[in-house]
Amino acid sequence: MAKRILTGLLIAAGIVAAVWWGPFWLVASVFGLVILGAQQELLRMPEGAATRADQVAGGLAGLAVLFVAVVGADGARGHSQLIATIMAASLFVLLWVLFSPHPMQTAAGRAARLLSGMLYIVVLGATAILAVRPEHEVLGRTVLLLAAGAAGVGDSAAFFGGKFLGRHKMYPAASPNKTWEGSFFGVLGSVLGTLLIARICMPELPVLQVAVFGVIGAFLGQTGDLAESMFKRSAGVKDSGNILPGHGGLLDRIEDRKSVV
């Protein structure tokens, strides 16, 4: 527990410092590496794991999406470029499996795994890089910190609320330890986390809008967490990796709400 808390505190401090004070190129580079690392963890999970060649192909497709998110044009033109790149990258991974299907029994699983890594991790992760692009100025960085606050504080509140007051299981087939009571406290924590960050970073933001942001962030975060738990349960693994002491892998830290802080 102590190792988990210490790792969580260090990660949280690093994220806040990088997002608020770091230059765009540094934030984008760090986020890009984390996103690609999480994608590779998903591809390497057992039970239908992608081949080494699949991992390289998926990584290249993800890198193309992140590259456009970093250096693409501003405004509507930049969004159009990113959407086109996402479509092209998704088509690329499908064609990759189509032209290397053997053994045929695993082809569908490989295609699904590659697309999941692209859409579930890379595309969603690219939105974090878009938020801190220079044209969005302080508002973009504040929004990203609000999302981090909704996840981080919600994580801790859900963990302790479920540990001490949890009685009713939420989805035991995917995540045996998650409870409805913990989920409720997680929502409260997400709202409080976003309100606190908004008060510090941009106090002029409307309180109601920030609170709604926290509720939506809690719902999306807990849904993503259950999805990752389902992936790991189906693959028969406890953690997606072991790069972070007490927290598992990068994908665990991005999605898993079992960790403290």
Highlighted features:
2 strands, single chain, globular, 261 residues, disordered C terminus, two-stranded antiparallel sheet
Q: What report would you give on this structure?
A:
The chain is mostly helical and 261 residues long. It contains nine helices and two strands; from the N terminus they run H-H-H-H-H-H-E-E-H-H-H. It has helices at residues 2-21, 24-44, 52-71, 75-98, 107-131, 137-165, 180-201, 207-235, 250-255, and strands at 169-171, 175-179. Strands 1-2 form a two-stranded antiparallel ribbon. Helix 6 (137-165) packs antiparallel against helix 7 and helix 7 crosses helix 8 (207-235). It is globular. The relative contact order is 0.14. Mean pLDDT is 86; it is low at 256-261.
Query: What's the alpha carbon Rg, rounded to whole Å?
Result: 19 Å
- Number of distinct beta strands: 2
Mind describing the biggest β-sheet?
2 strands, antiparallel
Along the chain, the helix and strand elements come as: HHHHHHEEHHH
Low-confidence stretches: 256-261
Mean pLDDT metric:
86
The termini sit apart by 11 Å
SSE-based structural type: mainly alpha
Map the helices and strands.
Elements: H1 2-21, H2 24-44, H3 52-71, H4 75-98, H5 107-131, H6 137-165, E1 169-171, E2 175-179, H7 180-201, H8 207-235, H9 250-255
Antiparallel strand pairs: 1-2
Summarize the structure.
With 261 residues, the protein is mostly helical. The chain has helices at 2-21, 24-44, 52-71, 75-98, 107-131, 137-165, 180-201, 207-235, 250-255; strands spanning 169-171, 175-179. Strands 1-2 form a two-stranded antiparallel ribbon.
